[in-house]
Amino acid sequence: MAMKIPNAVDFAAIQENVVAQFRDLDPKDPSLWPVLPRNALFVLTSIVIVGVLWLVWLSGSQEILQQEQEKEIKLREDYKTKLTKAVNLDVLKKQREQVQQYVTQLEKQLPSKAEMDALLSDINQAGLGRSLQFDLFRPGQIAVKEYYAELPIAIKVTGRYHDIGAFASDIANLSRIVTLNNLTIVPKSDNTLTLDSTAKTFRYLDKDEVSSQRKATGGKGAGK
């Protein structure tokens, strides 16, 4: 029985057929293209779409990852801060108590409204006790702050050098806070000196004054 020999594959014809399908393609209407170009276009389009989707997903994932990393850094910093506060809690409590004691001590050095006249008398007596002559002793306008009031006093005294120095020391050692500002010392012909200064003393505000001051401050802020 004779065997049938298969025909040889004509690769040149196949290549020519493939190339022919890609000739004269109408880019405006791919539906008219032969099968091979249409399938090639479909595969290429699918690859592009998958690639774009992959890049979009990767970009979104990278952004989420960066946000989570930033959150982690912030949480670590918060943890370190809270841990430091927890470790130093006893120290902070002691410091707070010391500050409160210091504030209380300062408040005790501020006279009340009723004690201001006595303080003015103490300043006057400090000068008279050093044999100084008061040429001027004039309390000025009270400047009310948030929690305290400031009273300037124009002072002009005449006396000897050591007596004026002792007077300044006595003012500094008063039980209440009094400061001497804008000091001017002028010598006179009789070997005495004239001290011109503005003494400032302070007093704390009572509850009603604090409340009124807060309302006044709030009213100004609202007006703005």
Annotation field: number of helices: 6
Low-pLDDT runs = none
What is the radius of gyration? Answer: 47 Å
Give the percentage of residues in beta strands: 15-25%
Mean pLDDT across residues = 79
Structural class assignment = alpha+beta
What is the chain-wise order of helices and strands?
A: HHHHEEEHEEH
Number of strands: 5
The top-level CATH class of the largest domain is Alpha Beta
- What is the domain tally? 2
Please tell me what the overall shape is: rod-shaped
What is the helix fraction of residues, given as a range? 55-70%
CATH homologous superfamily of the largest domain - what is it? Ribosomal protein S6/Translation elongation factor EF1B
Named CATH architecture of the largest domain:
2-Layer Sandwich
Q: Distance between the terminal alpha carbons, to the nearest Å?
A: 116 Å
The CATH topology of the largest domain turns out to be Alpha-Beta Plaits
Q: Can I get a quick summary?
A:
The chain has 224 residues and is α+β, with helices and mostly antiparallel strands. Helices cover 57% and strands 19% of the residues. Helix 4 packs antiparallel against helix 5 (161-172).
